[in-house]
Write a structure and sequence with these properties.
Helix content is about 30%, strand content about 30%. The protein has helices at about 40-45, 55-65, and strands at about 15-20, 25-30, 35-40.
Length: about 70
Amino acid sequence: MADEMKEYIGTKKIRAKPQIKNGEKGYKVKYPDGYISWSPKDVFEKAYIEVEKLNYKDAINMLNKAYK
């Protein structure tokens, strides 16, 4: 089918800091191209892990979980 959606896994290195917006916990996010946005805490923490806390085993596990 032409309209069938496929799965994709993307990676990007971003900068972020915790921020409260309209009383909701989340993160201010800055992308490599300078674009700034805000993400709810639960959404952000499912998608990103702090670089200092990431090791090879964790990276492989994250890729496997996202792929499933």
